[in-house]
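Help! Submission page says 'invalid entity' but I think these are all valid:
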Amino acid sequence: MPIGQRAPTLNMSKLLRQLGYRTGQSRKITYYRDAIFGRDAYGVENTTIAVNELQLPNVQSYIRTIMTKNFTLEREGSNVVGASMIYLPRLSTLKGFPNFNQTNNVYFNDVEGFDTIIDVDHDVFWVPTSGTTGWTGANCTLTSDGEAITATLTATGATVEYVDNTNTLEAGRIAFQTQASGTVHIKNIYSYNGGTADAVPNVINYQNATGVPVYTNDYLSVDIPWGSGNWTDINSSTTAASGTTSIYASGTRYQYIIKDAAGVNAGVSGASSFNYNYTGNLRKFKLALSGTIGNTFKLRQVRYYQPIYWQVQGIKEYNDEYMALKCIRTYGPRESLRRAYG
Amino acid sequence: MANDFINLIERAIIDELRGIFPECSIYGQYPEAVNASWPAIILEMVGSGTEQKFMGKKVTFGASNTQTTGEIYGVAYVIHLIIDKDSQVNVDNSGTIEGYKQRRLLNYLMLNVANAIQDMTFPSTIEITERHLQTWTDIGFAADLELWGATATMTVLFENYRAV
């Protein structure tokens, strides 16, 4: 390179998009950070949340796997079962996303150790939105453009639901994308497993009284944990205290309380009365919306997927073009055991 | 009944701990990595054998006239307390329910697991002659595993009835 000539810069975001079209290794992940709890006067964490969890989906990344799954059992019970290098766009690009923008969301400043990158192991079930077969709506009419289901509201508030009878046991999270015209909020997300009646133990209900506002110019990505009755069985780090989860829109957190059909909250502690059996086939996926007549609500890429939880152990490279994160996987379910024991 | 005292003792201890600490996972051996959940109390047997053999074989224990082998048998366990960062147990602290975590939880568990084991009543089908719970050791935080833990050794001696 001639002296004085500036080295060409690497447009990491563009590169990741291009790689994503050609390989499966570039894909969108969900960035997760545990809630941070307060401390008592003796330096021990208490149960008061000082800073809520971050759960920010739709980040383009490149994952170079060193070890995807290692089933060697170690005595201590918490062994490393995978390792990878994960490349993210540079920090300023990341902060360009509404959820990471520090003006909107003061809680994301930088990538830190122990942050979690939630990757897709495989999709267990895609709820089809290429047509309206299986879909019904209350207070709305449904159409599909071959990619997304569109609900046009015919009254104030509506529900859309998809009915099926298919296995989703191996999934650990639910993700979908939505877009709306006008002011539409998602108030409830329901998954019915093992039955379509509004009865214990069929239903899990993610509830926010007002609901997250759906984007009008872009698709809002939603990615929430899903699993068994006692959430600590799956991965305690994916649920915040008191059985809640988060949907972020433009950097603002909307807390969703996780309930069963009887209204019992899936608290991390004392969750024994929470009764939802995720092991049954998926019978219904349902959303409850708020909005007014004429508003439209588009829904696409609805999927139950099995996640991989990568934990950031080190930051190898950190420059103007990209971040290279050394990640390990400390939790990896054996699905045969999950099916056997529930 | 079957000569199955070791299983009876092991299961009695597990049942007792499960009843007193419902928010903890109680394991009779190291759990498989993929199924482990915390906080955990792990009862792991590390030894068993004859503690004392009386002279002669035909003896009677207590008021029973049944003659059996004169033998005291023993089993030794290590009890591990393991908690992770998110582990929480709600404790009634003078009428106030407080969520105990981390070091505070470990301190609480050490004393109360010891109390539970020392105070427990074994089934009437076993005659325990002695029980010894040693001090908690290896108390601390394993940085590579992100787990807090403590370990104690426990020995139980029982009358090993069997027909002669």
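Support: the input was valid. A stray whitespace character was the problem, and the output above is from the cleaned input. Chain A touches chain B through 31 residues (CB under 8 Å).
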